[in-house]
Design goal:
With about 160 residues, this protein is mainly α. The protein is about 75% helix and about 0% strand. It is built from 8 helices and no strands. α1 packs across α2.
């Protein structure tokens, strides 16, 4: 494939029209891009990254979210704050807003890099299809695991707090 649009269509899959339109304002030299709001990235954050096979961005974001949570816990402990407060809502909306605003840009960076790497290593057009697309397995496993952990916490935490 010599046509970049064909490459993007092969890489992205069914939603290629949305991303082609969103990326039309992108600087071809990898610079700034006009922001385009991404509702799935806003609501699902790192789960959306797993769905889009953006594993490097997932781990970076996951680490940043863990660091934010740890910093929040340290501040709450230092100030003897118990339970969630208004700052949790502000932090959660700020994080969701960041992903909503920059998700499409992150995906652009991921797609252009992965397409270029794939084309350098493989001559088969199917290699771009395999490198891109979506993957349901990891998001379903992560969300399922979160549900199971939530149920276990709801069962065990009251028992642990009443036994002491």
């Amino acid at each position: 494939m010599q046509n970049p649009e064909e490459d993007v269509r092969a890489f992205v899959g069914p939603n290629a029209d949305y991303y082609l339109q969103a990326w039309a304002a992108a600087d071809p030299n990898g610079g700034r891009q006009a922001l385009r709001w991404n509702w799935p990235a806003f609501f699902l954050n790192v789960i959306w990254m797993l769905y889009r096979k953006m594993y490097k961005y997932f781990w970076i974001s996951f680490g940043a979210l863990v660091a934010i949570g740890a910093a929040e816990g340290i501040v709450e402990a230092m100030l003897s704050i118990k339970g969630p407060g208004w700052w949790d809502i502000v932090i959660n909306f700020a994080v969701a807003g960041f992903f909503g605003a920059y998700g499409t840009w992150f995906y652009y960076r991921h797609a252009t890099f992965t397409i270029a790497q794939t084309k350098a290593q493989h001559t088969s057009p199917e290699a771009i299809v395999r490198a891109g697309g979506v993957r349901w397995l990891w998001p379903v496993l992560i969300l399922g695991g979160a549900v199971v952990l939530g149920i276990l916490a709801a069962i065990l935490v009251p028992r642990l707090t009443h036994s002491s």
